[in-house]
Specification:
By secondary structure, the chain is α/β, with parallel strands linked by helices. The protein has helices at 49-64, 72-78, 90-101, 114-122, 146-153, 160-179, 182-194, 209-212, 217-223, 234-239, 257-263, 269-278, and strands spanning 104-108, 125-129, 197-200, 203-206, 228-231, 250-254. 41% of the residues lie in helices and 9% in strands. A four-stranded mixed β-sheet has the order 4-3-6-5. It has a two-stranded parallel sheet with strand order 1-2. The two termini are 25 Å apart. Bound molecules: phenylalanine and fe (iii) ion (FE). Phenylalanine binds at residues 168-169, 172, 175, 188, 264-268.
Length: 293
């Protein structure tokens, strides 16, 4: 959730976004205060003035590059996060979010096991890491922190269609766990929720949180001639490996959040079987059927 990839140089190095808790080192964060569902108190009072100042700098850097690169739905909702000069209080943010789409944000110590993650999403509760990166991690943090989770993910939870997609994803995750298909579903999360692009009349724009919270990948994903940008194709995505330690080699482009919601509504059981039979593809692979941008 990943130098070249700041997010990745980044945030999810070595840890796939929904295979929470399976990294090769213990996750950062204090798990002793967490409840059985992995949620905990935000403990807002424990943030220091330096934490708030760092959050403000991160917010400033990312906000400055949104015009022309982020989708309009995201840009419009950023102000809903609260004052840009301090880490938001989750309870206040949750009240605004709940009024908009019925979602809330809940604090977690850090990465959590995937089943716990899916369950929270299915209940329209978005887990946000409590801790903030250190100043020396301004461009690079190894796991998702409060800035990535909030700034990257929460604005689109104010969009009704995307909000429903996230809940469906959580329910789908619980089902995929039973079917042992989490690897396929994790790729869908990666190429949509974390690194998705959307085609708009004004051109391609980013909606993925990994891109939108990254210092460098936002520009790269939308403007660089290097990566390939392919039309959204559910089964193609489920077959495609992703990069966790560099910028993505491939991005997938949706036409609308409605398209994303509708394309993922069918029962995935037969789809997982087909995807398993079709075989895995490298992150930069080309297929004759690819629709290129
Ligand atoms: N339709 C999927 C299933 O039946 C669930 C899902 C929805 C998964 C949306 C991801 C996103 O398994
Ligand atoms: Fe993320």
């Amino acid at each position: 959730m990943p130098a070249s990839n700041d997010f990745h140089s980044g945030i999810n190095q070595g840890v796939a976004p929904v295979t929470y808790g399976q990294g090769d080192r213990p996750p950062r964060g204090d798990y002793s205060r967490a409840a059985a569902d992995y949620t905990c108190e935000q403990d807002w009072a424990s943030y220091t003035a330096e934490d708030h100042a760092l959050y403000r700098r991160l917010h400033e850097r990312q906000s400055a590059q949104l015009p022309g690169l982020a989708c309009a739905e995201f840009i419009e909702a950023v102000s809903q996060l609260g004052e840009p000069d301090r880490i938001p209080r989750f309870d206040q943010l949750s009240r605004r979010l709940h009024r908009a789409t019925g979602w809330e944000v809940v604090a977690v110590p850090g990465l959590i096991p995937e089943e716990a993650f899916f369950k929270l999403l299915a209940d329209r509760r978005f887990p946000v890491t409590g801790w903030l990166r250190r100043p020396e991690e301004f461009d690079y943090v190894v796991e998702p922190d409060v800035f990535h989770d909030l700034f990257g993910h929460v604005p689109l939870l104010f969009n009704p269609v995307f909000a429903d997609y996230m809940q469906a994803y959580g329910a789908g995750g619980l089902k995929a766990s039973r079917l042992e298909a989490c690897e396929y579903l994790a790729r869908l999360y990666w190429y949509t929720v974390e690194f998705g692009l959307i085609a708009t009349p004004a051109g391609l724009r980013a909606y993925g949180a990994g891109i939108l919270s990254s210092a460098g990948e936002l520009r790269h994903s939308v403007l660089s001639p290097e990566p390939q940008r392919l039309g959204f194709d559910l089964e193609r995505i489920m077959r495609t490996r992703y990069k966790i330690d560099t910028y993505q080699a491939s991005y997938f482009v949706i036409d609308s959040f409605d398209q994303l919601f509708e394309a993922t509504a069918p029962d995935f059981t037969p789809i997982y079987r087909r995807v398993g039979d079709a075989g895995v593809l490298e992150a930069d692979s080309h297929l004759p059927g690819d629709r290129r941008y």
